[in-house]
Amino acid sequence: AQTVTQSQPEMSVQEAETVTLSCTYDTSESDYYLFWYKQPPSRQMILVIRQEAYKQQNATENRFSVNFQKAAKSFSLKISDSQLGDAAMYFCAYRRTRSNDMRFGAGTRLTVKP
Amino acid sequence: EAQVTQNPRYLITVTGKKLTVTCSQNMNHEYMSWYRQDPGLGLRQIYYSMNVEVTDKGDVPEGYKVSRKEKRNFPLILESPSPNQTSLYFCASSSYSGDTGELFFGEGSRLTVL
Q1: Mind listing the pLDDT tens digit for each residue in A30-88?
Q2: What pLDDT is stored for residue A38 in this prediction?
Q3: DSSP characters for A14-78?
Q4: Which among B99, B103, B110 has CB closest to A98?
């Protein structure tokens, strides 16, 4: 079964600085999606960024970007110019194309210091 | 507004008292699933449904039941809740056509079993 590992239970960053959250995954598939979801205190699961495995170009959404290393099965999230509103739990997730479930890491709690 | 709606958002119950958590989506999605979120474990899939009258077990199905009589609804039933089912529950849905891989989540239901 596919697994997703987030090795950093907690991270902190100074406001306006940059932080990188790590994620590795294990799969024998070649066609899949990777995601980062944000969960603020409201508990809502919010999609931050999505990467399709067949695309070599790293996905970017405003201040959020990923470093996708397919061979190394690594998918890190970089948050630039961190803002107080970025404080949340972040989950890395994997989903095989047209599969029935999404696999999640254990999460990384990000604190943003003013 | 496209959304997944869960009810109740909060519930405290006692061991053995049957309860149902409802889930409804208005996006005509074929695929629906239930996850539970526990500290240090991320989100784990309980049950999923590929379409009406088609359901199957996820990773942690013990103590739960589901049904899919209509495309939009996917209730989670706890016939005899126990304290180890105290958790945060999420319903999610997605579409196969034009599949982007993304799951759309409800706002979560916090369940406490005493």
Answers
A1: 889 999 999 999 999 999 999 999 998 999 999 999 999 999 999 999 999 999 999 99
A2: 97
A3: ETTS-EEE--EEE-S-SSEEEEEEEE-TT---EEEEEEETT--SPPEETTEEEEEETTTTEEEEE
A4: B99
Best mutation target among B23, B33, B37, B68 (most A Cβ atoms within 10 Å) is B37
> For chain B, give me the number of helices (H) and strands (E)?
0, 11
Nearest CB to A44 within list B58, B100, B107 = B107
Is the model more confident about B102 or about B33?
Answer: B33
- Quote the CA–CA distance of B43 and A104 in Å, as a whole number: 6
Contacts of B50 in chain A (CB under 8 A): 100
Give the minimum alpha-carbon distance from A82 to chain B in angstroms, rounded to a whole number.
24
Quick one: pLDDT at residue A2? 64
